[in-house]
């Protein structure tokens, strides 16, 4: 089913490397780059060639980076991944010692960003991070915003998606692998309830720091994307939080946050789909809200413009369409 989710159009993201670090990061909490050794060698060689008569680069550079000289050699040889903050410090030293201007620094930093580098923590799996927003990523973000969980505690950086269908979680896991080169693990959480758990510092930082993703909120980024990406975001959100009736012509999305649903309605209207509501519901468990589609023409319009990629909900939607077309 992933193959049915479009990969275009793509929207370029700006250089977000420094955004992957949190303020106050220390050595063990920084994000590290694998495959950046050629840049370390280039900056080092230029600094040495420019200053071999006037400056002891071999001691000056490590001292200013706050690393031991043997660690710097490990960065150059690719035996150790270099942290984003250390690489940027090295670039600023290169600018200073080689008499470069800000434009040249920014050009090199952009070229580093565009390189096929891998991201990781001090230890653990190295992953890829997208440099563009595309419909597959938008669909994934819809799942996260609808029913995900983002958290970090200690050395754990967790992305969690809960779902009753293990087959659907396998689908999301394959989608994550295609986007980021990482697979999570599926765990049984309670009777008939499962969760996909992905532990990755750079991925969590990418979602929270770069894309500004928050569970239960429509990201500002999604409000600015093209209609195709907006459609796939809504589709992911429906598949995580929505309900398609087996017997009635009703599609419903429920949430505890009223504003979330009104913003979702506005986003859906932009791509030509109208939800009614929000309707307030109050039970012993608390207050929640829902928006819905009930008219047959609107259901068909939803199926055409947004649709579902859920293993079970896509079948329910197809059955619903079949019932409508037979009447």
CATH H-level name of the largest domain... which superfamily?
Homing endonucleases
State the distance separating the first and last CA atoms: 29 Å
In order across it, which strands form the biggest sheet?
Answer: 6-7-9-8
The main β sheet shows up as: 4 strands, antiparallel
From the spread of the alpha carbons, the general shape counts as elongated
Mean pLDDT, to the nearest integer, reads 93
* CATH-derived architecture of the largest domain: Roll
Portion of residues within helices: 40-55%
CATH class of the largest domain: Alpha Beta
CATH topology of the largest domain: Endonuclease I-creI
Number of helices: 13
Strand segment tally = 13
Description of the molecule:
This protein has 13 helices and 13 strands. Strands 6-7-9-8 form a 4-stranded antiparallel sheet. The protein has helices at residues 37-51, 57-65, 69-77, 84-97, 102-114, 135-147, 166-180, 201-210, 220-224, 227-241, 258-270, 296-305, 313-326, and strands spanning 11-12, 32-34, 82-83, 118-120, 132-133, 148-153, 156-163, 185-190, 193-199, 242-244, 251-255, 276-283, 286-293. A hairpin with a 6-residue loop joins strand 10 and strand 11. With 327 residues, it is α+β, with helices and mostly antiparallel strands. 47% of the residues lie in helices and 19% in strands. It starts with 10 loop residues before the first strand and ends with a helix. It folds into 2 domains: 36-116, 434 Repressor (Amino-terminal Domain); 132-326, Roll (Endonuclease I-creI).
